[in-house]
Design brief:
alpha/beta, about 45% helix, five-stranded parallel β-sheet, about 20% strand, 5 helices, Alpha/beta knot, about 160 residues, 5 strands
Length: about 160
């Protein structure tokens, strides 16, 4: 099994970097884990809706070139389906089967996800209606992936 996190932007805080390292270490007991970062684009202080769409589209394209054709792609998007941790575990294990053993997650930039990434997505997921900074969303995703493996392997986890 292989898990890939494709994300716009770099972690800027050392405490987030440490959390990412810790969860990647934990996940590596169950799956190969790879985090792929692409640079985020500068967002001018005054942008039109058209400019925001162009930025999201350019960021989406920079992620799309990193995605292999047979990978199962799960796009994180605020307005999509929410799952419990148990449902997510089942969904994730099924996704590995459908993606030839590789599942990729895409996290958009601060403006969200571009349309081309949505079109390529095999599934969509939300961590709730709260807006999370995309850097923090990355840590929440890693924690939930780790929890999903613990659940799938019938190992203890905090409920």
């Amino acid at each position: 099994m292989k898990t890939r996190i494709l994300t716009i932007g770099h972690l800027k805080e050392s405490f987030l970097e440490e959390a990412e390292k810790e969860y990647c270490k934990r996940i590596s007991s169950y799956s190969q884990i790879e985090v792929i970062e692409v640079p985020d684009l500068k967002i001018p202080s005054k942008t039109s809706l058209k400019d925001e769409i162009l930025i999201k589209d350019k960021e989406a394209e920079s992620l799309l070139i990193k995605i292999k054709p047979r990978e199962f792609l799960i796009v994180l998007d605020l307005n999509q389906k929410e799952l419990t941790s148990e449902e997510f575990s089942s969904f994730l294990m099924d996704s590995y089967r459908r993606g030839d053993g590789t599942v990729s997650f895409a996290i958009g930039g601060s403006l969200g996800v571009g349309e081309a990434l949505r079109k390529r997505g095999n599934a969509f997921l939300s961590f709730g209606k709260l807006t999370l900074p995309h850097q923090l969303c990355r840590i929440v995703l890693l924690e939930q992936i780790y929890r999903a493996f613990k659940i799938a392997n019938h190992e203890p986890y905090h409920k």
